[in-house]
Every structure is written in C-alpha cells, then in structure tokens.
Amino acid sequence: MKSLVLLTCSAVLLNLVFSTTQANSSFAQGRQMSSVNDFAILSPRERVAPENQLLLERLDTLLPKLMAEQQLDMWLVINREKAEDPIYFTLVPQPTFAARRTTMLIFHRLADGSVEKLTVNRYPLGAPFTAAWQGGSLEQQWQALAELIIAKDPQRIGINVSDEWPVADGLTSALHSRLKSVLPQPFHNRLVSAEQLVVRWLEQRTDTELAIYPHIVSLARSAIAEAFSSKVITPGVTTTEDVAWYLRERFSQLQLPVWFMPYVTLQRPGLTCEQDTAFCGQSGVIRRGDILHTDVGICYLKLCTDTQEMAYVLKADEQDVPEGLKAALATGNQWQDILTRQFVAGRTGNEILKATQQKAKAAGILSSTYSHPLGFFGHAPGPTIGMWDNQSTTPVQGDWPLYANTAYAIEGNIKQAIPEWRNQLAQIMLEQSAYFDGKQVIYLAGRQTQWHLVR
C-alpha cells in the first residue's frame, strides 16, 4: 500500500509539474506522427544499392580508423553456413543470406592506413572484396589462409572471441582450433581478441547513416500513431493483442522486419501499480479511460529502432487527456532531459546512470533508467545505462565509455500519482531513438511530448 508520505510527495510534485508545464507547454524536440503513408519505403530490391553504398563508406572510411584505434594489423572474420558470426551481415554486400560453406574475410591494414578487403573462399563475394583464393577443397582453403597470413606478417591479428560481448564471440571453438592448427606456433601469440573493434564497428554511425536514421525511426513512430487511433481501436471491442498484431502485420505489409514481437498493455483505475513493481499494465479488452503502452522495434536499411509510446482512450464526455496524466507525461519528458544531459563524451554508462538517478531523485521523480545503444541490432553493444532488473552498476558493458556519433534508445519509466485516479500510481514508459553528436543528444525523429488520443 502507498504511504501518506508518498501521496503527499506526489501531490507536491504534481503541482510543480503543473507550474512547469504552464510556463513551458512543450518540451524540446516534441513531434507528433500520423501515418506510415507519409513516408517513402523502398522495395527490397531498391534497398540493395543504398545498403551497399553505406557498407562501402563504412569499409573505406570508418574501418581503417577503428583498426588503427585498436592497433590491429589484421582482422579475421571466419564463419560457416548456418553458424554465421553475429557481425557477418554488417560486413558483406547485399543480397547475402548466408555464409557459403566456410567463409573467410580478411581485413589487412596497410602502411598508408588503408585496409585491404580480402576473401579466401570457395565462392567469391565480389566487390568490395578481392578474392585472394577461390575454389578447391576445404583443406586447401585453410592452407591458403595460413599462407596469406604468413605472407602479410601482421603483428596483431584480431579474432572474434570474447567472454563478455556476445556479438564479438562469433568465432566458434572448432574454427578457432582449426585456425591455430594451420598457423605456425609463433603466430599463435599474435592472435588477440577483436572485441573492442567489434563493439566500435557496431556502435559507430557514419554521417550518411545519421542522415537516413531519422526516416527509419519515423516509420516506427508513425506506425504507432496508426495503431493508437480510432482507425484500429474500438473501445470495448479491440484487445491489446489485436493492436499488437496490427503493428506486426502492418510492418509485414511494408516489408519492414521486426526484431521482436510488438506488445501492448493497458492501465486503468483499480489495476494496482505499486512503487516497487517493475512494469505496470496488463492485457485485455481496451476500455474508455484506459492508458495504453506499446513497445516496437523495426529494422530498415540495416539500422534498427526501439520505441515505446503512450496513448489515452477518451471517455465519451472527454475532449482531452486528464490533467494528471498530462502532468505524468511531462514528468517522463523531464526524466528524459535529466538523462540526456548526463551524456558527456568519455563518461561510462554506469557514470551516466548514477548521475541520472541522483538528479531524478533530487527532482522528486520516481524513475527507472535502462537505456542502451542502437544500430545494426536493436540491443546493440556499447555503454549500458542501467537495466530494468538492475538499477546498480553493470560490469563491463556499463563501464564502456560514451563516444560521439553513436545512437541510443533513451529508455526508462516514471511512476506518478494521478489525482483523477484517486492518487493511484500510473507508469509512463517511454523509449525514443536518439543519437549523441559529441555535445548533445538529438532525437532522431523527435519524441513523444503529447498523448496519442483514441476517440
């Protein structure tokens, strides 16, 4: 049960938020969406050319910098069909659906700083890779790889093995053993983990990627706007599962892959939401007066999104959201601002989390922070900024520093007492895709600062 102290503090906070929102009725970068039909979407065939151009830019301009940063002379990405390395598809041209038998990619840093892109495969990949060997038996393929490495004589050879980063652990035990068996003993000590290169490769965004990312995020946000409308929801009839499947099928129609099943929950007066409950909300038939929440993630042009937004289902005699819920969303936006102001290049995820928690507590906000990087994966590597089930430090991933031109899901929630609900707590769960340019956080397609309304 909520204590009188909590209710009193919530009432004071509510008055503070009201005065804040009256003075400044909208938070920065707020943006409302309407329909996915407002945005162009390329067909799968039309996506190949821009995806390959993006890949070429990354391989030619970004990879040399990252290999120099990590002091690697060579990087090996070796995998097999049906057991692809997690990063394999971020390195090869489209359309590619699998590794062909055993596929070997070799990136060799030259004296001038550029990087050779080579393959030792029975099936050549083609541009931008040059085939150093092709055809022959598996035994000949491994021998050709060994001869190439010996001839190039790299001092530090990165391989994808890692205890801590799953995305950097793509070299299987069998392939690792085979690699060592074909290399002369002196080369074994030159094999080092490429985990830091892998994380940097996956988290770092190019200028072109940052130029197209807002369009991709807009698709996700616009689909949510469609789903949270009277076009989809009939109060008293439509269920939360119906809305979730609308989103799933809508993305399928648009040939936009989802990286998890969308989900939708509801909250209403009488459904208990306690201070120590991780997530409030349940499934069921949507009624007037409910608040709705969804979580959606899509990928397009190889870049992924992660978005959570809130809606309110108007009662028959209402024209707008109750003031208490408006204030709660404003508190959610205030928490976002507190979090994003802690983004400073070089700070670790754990440091950002601690600073956010201290400032949110000082502002009287009951919050939980669990933000993460975005990119080729929805849950991408980089600095972890809290986890929903761990609001303390996160070893390794939480100790990763913040770099410029990296993208994030600004994710978390606040709880606030709602006067119109007899001071019952409501949970506002927000997640918006954004990037850090080295100085500030910029939302890729704006953020939700107003409730979606279902009439």
Automatic annotation (TrEMBL):
- The domain of life for this entry's organism is Bacteria
Q: Which SUPFAM superfamilies match?
A: Creatinase/aminopeptidase
Q: Report whether Cell membrane shows up as a keyword of the record.
A: no
* Protein's recorded name: Xaa-Pro aminopeptidase family protein
Q: Name one GO molecular function term.
A: aminopeptidase activity
Signal sequence annotation: 1-23
Q: Name one Pfam family in it.
A: Peptidase_M24
Keywords associated with the record: Aminopeptidase, Hydrolase, Protease, Signal
Which residues does the UniProt record annotate as the domain Peptidase M24?
219-382
